[in-house]
Amino acid sequence: MSGPWDRGPRPPRPPGGAPRSRPAPAGPRAPRRDTTEPAAASAAGQAQRPARREELRLYGLNAVDAVFRRRPEAIRKVYLAEARIPVLKPLLAWCVKHRVGYRVVADEDLERLAASAHHEGVVADVQRTAPLPLQDWLASLAPGAPALALWLDGVGNPHNFGAILRSAAHFGAAVLLPPASELALSGAAARVAEGGAEAVPLVRLPQTGAALDALRGAGFQLAATVVRGGDSLFGTALPPRLVYVMGAEGEGMDPALAAACDRRLSIPGTGAVESLNVAAATAVFLARWAARG
Questions:
Q1: What is the tens place of the pLDDT at every residue in 140-185?
Q2: CB 113 within 8 A of CB 142
Q3: What are phi and psi of 24, to 5 degrees?
Q4: Helices (H) and strands (E) in the chain, counts
Q5: Nearest Cα residue to 29 out of 90, 102, 104
Q6: How far apart are CA 121 and CA 137, in angstroms?
Q7: Residue 143's closest CA among 60, 229, 219, 256?
Q8: Which pairs from 212-216 meet CB under 8 Å and 24+ separation?
Q9: What is the helix, strand, coil percentage profile of the chain, to 5?
Q10: Does residue 181 contact residue 54 with C-beta atoms inside 8 Å?
Q11: CA-CA distance, 139 to 153, in Å (whole number)?
């Protein structure tokens, strides 16, 4: 949305810094401990290694579980706290069956691996998925069926991105990324999305003119979301195929892009604050489309 959004007692570790070994979960076929790395290799060392561009380090129970449920073959390595063994038994059993390494490590190691205290006891390295080309996403839509998307023009805060993905998953929207956008799924965004990142199509747009033509050719209207001066969101009939264009936090959207849209929409409020945070505004816009009747 265009306008000024938000600016933006642990167990002891053994000598040598290596993660502690723990017994494998009980059961008829208990998952085995990973032995693919030297014993002296610490999780802290793992965290300092440059991440492969094709891999993503996820953390948080819902984020990791969503990958396990939707594309388990993407999982490359799992690190977990001992306390998470019971809830993660299905994942660990899958790792054993498919020879995917996992390690039980201390909380401080998980913190280093995730670069966050919000790891919720599990970290996983997974294969990234590349955004779909716009034409591929359009071809995947059922002919004439209602469809909703968010064009993110400059949104960059990973926590806002994660919250947007969560709302998009809830309301069934795709997320469209401009060709020059560096916005990509991160561990922080995936955790905030609470598993929603796996359910949302990420779509790479071509240049603006070609993107507008392709979207309109597929029956979409585009709505620039603005803080003021637009038609009231709650008093406007919304089309069955709609793209909301959401501007960057702080700078707002590109004026030329806003001018190229079919309509301008604003969320009316009390005026007690200048505007909603872009993630909160996104949820309101999506909910209004879903309730369009």
A1: 999 999 999 999 998 889 999 999 999 999 999 999 999 988 889 9
A2: no
A3: -75, 160
A4: 10, 12
A5: 90
A6: 35
A7: 219
A8: 212/260, 214/134, 214/135, 214/138, 215/134, 215/138, 215/243
A9: 35, 20, 45
A10: no
A11: 23
Ranges of the chain whose pLDDT falls below 50: 2-51
Q: Which residues pair with 232 in a beta bridge?
A: 266
Three-class SS of residue 45? helix
Q: Quick one: pLDDT at residue 250? A: 64
- H or E stretch at 181: none
Structure pTM? Answer: 0.81
Q: What residues form DSSP beta bridges with 259?
A: none
Q: Which residues pair with 262 in a beta bridge?
A: none
CA atoms within 13 A on the CB side of 263: 16
Query: Which one, of 118, 190, 124, 123, lies nearest residue 161 by Cα?
Result: 190
From residue 98, how far is each of 5, 18, 61 by CA, in Å? 45, 25, 21
61-70 and 89-97 are packed helices; what angle lies between their axes, rounded to 10 degrees? 50
Handedness of CA 266, 269, 271, 277 (dihedral sign): negative
Contact 146, 121 (CB under 8 A): no
Residue 290's nearest CA partner among 167, 142, 156 is 167
The alpha carbons of the chain give a radius of gyration, in whole angstroms, of 22
